[in-house]
Amino acid sequence: MAAKTLYDKIWDAHLVAEQDGETIIYIDLHLIHEVTTPQAFAGLRANGRPVRRPDRTLAVADHNVPTEGQALGAGAVADEEARLQLLTLERNVADNGIEYFPMGDLRNGIVHVVGPEQGRTQPGMTIVCGDSHTSTHGAFGALAQGIGTSEVEHVLATQTLRQAKSKNMRVTIDGTPAPGVGAKDFALAVIGAIGTAGGTGHVIEYAGEAIRALSMEGRMTLCNLTIEAGARAGLVAPDETTFDYMRGRPAAPKGAAWDMAVAHWKSFFTDEGAVFDSEIVLDAAAIAPLVTWGTSPEDVMPITGLVPDPASFATPDKRASVARALDYMGLVAGQPISEAKVDRVFIGSCTNSRIEDLRAAAAVVQKAFLEGRLVAPHVRAMVVPGSGLVKAQAEDEGLDAIFKAAGFDWREPGCSMCLGMNPDRLAPGERCASTSNRNFEGRQGRGGRTHLLSPVMAAAAAIAGHLADVRDFI
Amino acid sequence: MKPFTKIDAKAAPLALSNIDTDQIIPKQFLKTVEREGLARGLFYDFRFDEAGNEKTDFVLNQPAYKDAGVLVTGDNFGCGSSREHAPWALLDFGITCVISTSFADIFYNNCFQNGLLPVVLKAHEVESLMAQARGGNHVVSVDLEAQTVTAPDGEVFRFDIDPARKHKMLNGLDAIGETLQRVSDIDVYEGRRALDNPWLERA
Hints:
The complex is a heterodimer. By secondary structure, chain A is α/β, with parallel strands linked by helices. Chain A contains 15 helices and 19 strands. The longest helix of chain A is centred in the N-terminal third of the chain and has 17 residues. Chain B has eight helices and seven strands. Chain B has a seven-stranded mixed beta sheet. The chains are: A alpha/beta, B alpha/beta. At the A-B interface, strand 1, strand 2, helix 2, helix 3 and helix 5 of A face helix 4, helix 6, helix 7 and helix 8 of B.
């Protein structure tokens, strides 16, 4: 039998039928939220179609929830449109018998934090959600893809997706990273290396000793950002780290079923000799703490670098787009990026709001605090935990006390300022050190200037008051 | 879904690469529970200033392009967020075809769910169309059956498209209806998986 990649194995295990040149694949888990589902449920109603597998569907409220006052419930959300969308979701899940963690429920939070945390995300699964960062769940060796609302409706009605198979790409990261360098830097390094369209048409499997050494939180960060490299999904083969994370979670199998499941999950790896359509190799030891300077996630540089000169780029198009980006970002070619003064710091999002992210950032903040340093006076810094459970655990560990003592705002869970659909957003011209995933023009608020970086780098920037090298803080 | 067969329409040039779906339709327009009425949000930050006034320099605000039906644009169009509001907004504005050298996967897929035709041409062909779209005569003809784009100067560019997608687009087929014709295959698959992976069956 021909050697198969991890992606090939998951794909083959989910084939339902071929029809008119398209493949119908089965979907094991469908995660839904308030923003990309109302039109899908309306479509089902208009056609008299039921939800095929409510038990394979899980709903959360995350994109436009406020990060305070959540216990008051969706009916108390001030923004009229957001409230209508949240109440529409509540009605749709109730009408269709779908499990739902409402705003204010301890289990609620960002969809890509909740799925793994609850044990709903499992190796070898196919997972979809009407959100591009669904790639996050690939950290468990699940084929996890973002889809549009029409496909959300298709999955609700049929529990399948019609799709053509993608190509295989492997990114191998060997070596040991320097202190202060982690999964976020790996991801930015990959996007910087292959570009935001570098993964188009591919599923990327991450391999190598630096990947094996990552925690599940780190693997989730890496797979989360895979979409920013243009790929359909990211994958890491499951191993003991995966099983240790999953054991005992609410929806994880128990007892004999656990042993049976683990034996099955262990079959999801790339065979020796399997062929990839393309391969990239990076050395973890050569990766510095990274930060973005422009308005695309591929605009990456080491924190020690100088803002690039548009004239140094090869094509006229690229020169024009770099000049436009620098103008938007309020940066000058040749200036050290570490001189960029920040107004806001955001620690959160489906990329970096898990307990390990908060622990790492809090450690930097605590060390500075013990040396008498707080959040710089001109900076507004906020921490938005990824879920109610992450928030509760952080509070048990006293992380909230560290953040608050240093001058951070400690918020309730949600997508928050990553995309600014709720009241948390940048004002025009404000510069933000952000652990989120997109530095697009206007993403965090019209005219807002976003620098993507890791949680420890965000903590360093909050204290320094400008983009700063975390290696000076540890 | 409305079928797409053939159009003759004005082409608007938008010479930027990596236009993401946040730019195609910003977050504040995603709070709707409807599919219609999104034209107002299309390229909002490009089209309107902070006070909500039209920016006269943006291509779709210029009289020659206000009723454009085709957008000619740079590489990797539609990257970023999976929001299907992006194709909905383009269609609501009257744009039924986007021509570029490349598209991001999720956006490309979303187009076919809605009868918006994304056409991939070679770089020099897109450049030629872009240059002609800037001129006085900027009507192009797009024929899905023949898989051709005819430029204002009469030059014909051929494009590739997946045959299954082409068929559905030409006939405006409902993908859910098609898949439900295979419901017995889904039943069989589910039955087999319930035996093989019983832990996946929740009480």
